[in-house]
Every structure is written in structure tokens, then in C-alpha cells.
């Protein structure tokens, strides 16, 4: 939500794994995805199916995600529909890029890290931290 002000004036849809997120943040266009990780393959399939349906119906031009497997899944599926992905690796990963962040670097139009010492030539880039 720290990026929210950057998108004022645009038609923004949010995807989250958190029930009640829309009410808490007072948002209208919110899609709830099943939470998934590499240790729960069936949940990953459910998440991918939901991502596919959301992206197919919205047809976004850009997907901005701050990480984890659901965001990675949205980025990959979005690419199939022509969307460009901007990957912001989680601030929680201060020692190394997340596994999802490492993978996203291969397909994202822009991949950034919030830790200067994790920036590499090309991807991910460092442009400052959110906190």
C-alpha cells in the first residue's frame, strides 16, 4: 500500500490473499487470490486458476507486484496477455533476493530491489527504498 499514491488517477485493480483487505483499505476493485507457496502445490494451482480468470477479465497493461508466489503467478500470466510486469522485491529480503524475485528477473519488464547491495547489473535495479 506504500505504492498506492503513485497510481492515483489510474484505473487500478488490487489482488491480495487477505480477506477483508478491501474493507480495511477502503478499496473497490479488489480480487482475493488463494494464498500459495512452493510447499503447497495444489494451492498454487488454485491460485494460478484464479489469477488467470482475473487477468483475462481485466486485461491489464501493467502488473506491479511486491512479491511472493501469487504476485509471481500474476506476472507470468499477465505476460501471456501482453501485460508488462514491474517486480518490487520485498523489503523483508535484506540478505538475498527472494526465490520469486530471482525468477521474476527473467521475465519482468522492470525488477527492483529495496536494498542497494542486492542490485546487480541489469536486474534487479535499485532506485531507493519504500521505507
UniProtKB/TrEMBL annotation:
The keyword Ribosomal protein does not apply. GO terms for biological process: dolichol-linked oligosaccharide biosynthetic process. GO terms for molecular function: transferase activity. InterPro entries: Oligosacch_biosynth_Alg14. Keywords: Transferase. The keyword Transferase applies. This is Glucuronosyltransferase. It comes from Sphingomonas adhaesiva.
Amino acid at each position: 500500500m506504500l505504492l498506492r499514491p503513485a497510481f492515483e488517477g489510474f484505473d487500478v485493480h488490487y489482488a491480495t490473499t487477505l480477506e477483508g483487505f478491501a474493507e480495511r483499505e477502503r478499496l473497490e476493485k479488489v480480487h482475493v487470490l488463494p494464498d500459495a507457496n512452493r510447499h503447497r502445490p495444489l494451492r498454487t494451482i488454485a491460485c494460478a486458476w484464479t489469477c488467470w480468470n482475473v487477468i483475462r477479465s481485466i486485461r491489464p497493461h501493467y502488473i506491479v507486484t511486491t512479491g511472493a508466489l501469487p504476485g509471481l503467478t500474476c506476472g507470468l500470466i499477465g505476460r501471456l496477455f501482453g501485460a508488462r510486469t514491474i517486480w518490487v522485491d520485498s523489503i523483508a529480503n535484506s540478505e538475498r533476493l527472494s526465490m520469486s524475485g530471482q525468477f521474476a528477473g527473467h521475465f519482468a519488464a522492470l525488477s527492483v530491489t529495496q536494498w542497494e547491495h542486492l542490485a546487480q547489473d541489469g536486474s534487479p535495479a535499485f532506485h531507493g527504498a519504500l521505507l
